[in-house]
Amino acid sequence: MDHFLYQNGILHAEDVPVPDIAAEVGTPFYVYSSATLERHYKLFDEALEGLDHLICYAMKANSNQAVLSLMARLGSGVDVVSGGEYRRAIAAGFPGDRIVFSGVGKTRAEMMLALQGGIRQFNVESEPEMRALSGVAQSLGTRAPITIRVNPDVDAKTHEKIATGKAENKFGIPISRARDVYGEAAMLPGLDVVGIDVHIGSQLTDLEPFEQAYTKVADLARILREDGHDIRRLDLGGGLGIPYERSNDAPPLPVEYGEVIKRTVGDLGCEVEIEPGRLIAGNAGLLVSDVIYVKSGEDRDFLILDAAMNDLIRPAMYGAYHDIVPIVEAPAGVALTPFDVVGPVCETGDTFTKGRSLPPLEAGDLVAFRSAGAYGAVMASEYNSRPLIPEVLVHGHQFAVIRRRPTFDEMINRDTIPEWLES
Ligand code: LLP
After folding, report:
1. To test the ligand 1 pocket, which listed residue (81, 204, 257, 278) has its Cβ within 8 A of the most ligand atoms?
2. Do 143 and 192 form a contact (C-beta atoms < 8 A)?
3. Which domains does the chain have, with CATH numbers?
4. Given pLDDT bands bounded at 50, 70 and 90, which one contains residue 30?
């Protein structure tokens, strides 16, 4: 459920009419609902009730400082994957002991930053990384708390670009080698081994792969304990999918996901962490855009929007589906017509969808892409020299611009012309 509903025929973000925001900030823009973000966080928190747990919001999904600050106030932890994300987390008020550091290629500088600033744990992904971290921690006279990310070789049954838990993927160490690697980790003077980490992919719409992976993790935890390791924490990653297509079957609910966790690892007495990103932010955001032209082609009609692939790359990159709805509600029973919905960027890949059935739309009408709060703004670029679009956060009747649109001069003046070209 989200908080984007029609009221008197106009799409609202909580209690704010979307056209009011458009009038103030101009299109295109992203708008997020605080109530939806909060609700999604609480769904996970409730799903893990009874377990010692921490939700570590995967900020890669949406790392705007206002969104992070809201999450930090709710008591969430956070999953970061770069020095930049770590700095964002600290700036938004997350204490170091609620920050976990994931990622397949952490640099020594990133390790240093997190060790000095405070960290709950590093999720280590390889032996060389583990040795490097031990060295960095030793040089600072400290020990780095770690889990080791295992690759359980489970098929997450999701898009190939976002599946991470198969042996062929670059992530984690093969679970078959885990005992040896844990053995080495325990000997390294700069490390304190606290647990196991796993993350098998994103936009999972079936609980079965989670069940398989978590069962393997539970078995491994028992073996490692027998080997003498103090396995006291399990990071189970993120990945629970969201309903992009409202007409389709709904993916499992957080509470059902929580049951899988309790069933598979609940009896180990470990502290459990999860790293949801998409489910928290995805349906908490819209991308709002204006129809520039309706163009008749040879055999189809094109809806040309002022938003483009540089603003929301998911359709071009993953063939992803996003619901597109008019801001002024279409009258019940109105005839729908097929449109190819496209942006103004100069490549055919800048197509959001083909043959989508939509109510009649004209130049100047506003439309919204639903489920755009995760992996939307964070993946945007300035391709075609289109400045990054603004982000807005709604809270009840209030709204605030949480990232303004840069001016064209700001965009242009980030570049510099070398002296030798100036004369
Ligand atoms: N933890 C780790 C280690 C991850 O790599 C990810 C996502 C998450 C947590 C959060 O997964 P989520 O709960 O959001 O599914 N850009 C793609 C998604 C990439 C996901 C990468 N890792 C998209 O737009 O679909």
Report:
1. 278
2. yes
3. 4-31+282-412 (2.40.37.10), 103-274 (3.20.20.10)
4. very high
Q: Does 199 contact ligand 1 (Cβ within 6 A)? A: yes
- The pLDDT tens digits of the residues spanning 377-395 come to 999 999 999 999 999 999 9
Alpha carbons 303 and 350: distance in angstroms, whole number: 12
β 337-342/351-358 pair status: antiparallel
Phi, psi of 58 (to 5 degrees): -80, 100
β partners of residue 272: 53, 234
Active site residues: 346
Identity of the residue numbered 376: G
How many degrees, rounded to 5, is the angle at CA 350 between CA 290 and CA 248?
Answer: 80
Check pocket membership of 237 for ligand 1, CB cut-off 6 A.
yes
> Which amino acid does the sequence have at 145?
P
The residue nearest atom 8 of ligand 1, judged by CA position, is: 238
For residue 357, what are the contacts with CB-CB under 8 A and spacing of at least 6? 336, 337, 338
Which of 40, 57, 60 is the best mutation target for the ligand 1 pocket, counting ligand atoms within 8 Å of the beta carbon and taking the most?
Answer: 60
- The residue whose CA has the least distance to atom 19 of ligand 1 is 162
pTM value surpassing 0.90: yes
Helix H or strand E encompassing 420: helix 419-422
Residue 61 CA to residue 278 CA, distance in Å, equals 6
User: What's the CA-to-centroid distance between 229 and ligand 1, angstroms?
Assistant: 29
Burial class of 161 by CB neighbour count within 10 A (0 to 12, 13 to 18, 19+): exposed
Structure-block tokens of residue 311: 């603003």
CA of 6 relative to ligand 1 center, distance in Å: 30
CA-based nearest residue to 121, from 139, 107, 133: 133
265-307 pLDDT, tens digit per residue, is 999 999 999 999 999 999 999 999 999 999 998 999 999 999 9
* Average of per-residue pLDDT across 164-183: 91
User: Residue 163: what pLDDT?
Assistant: 83
Which protein residue has the closest C-alpha to ligand 1 atom 16?
375
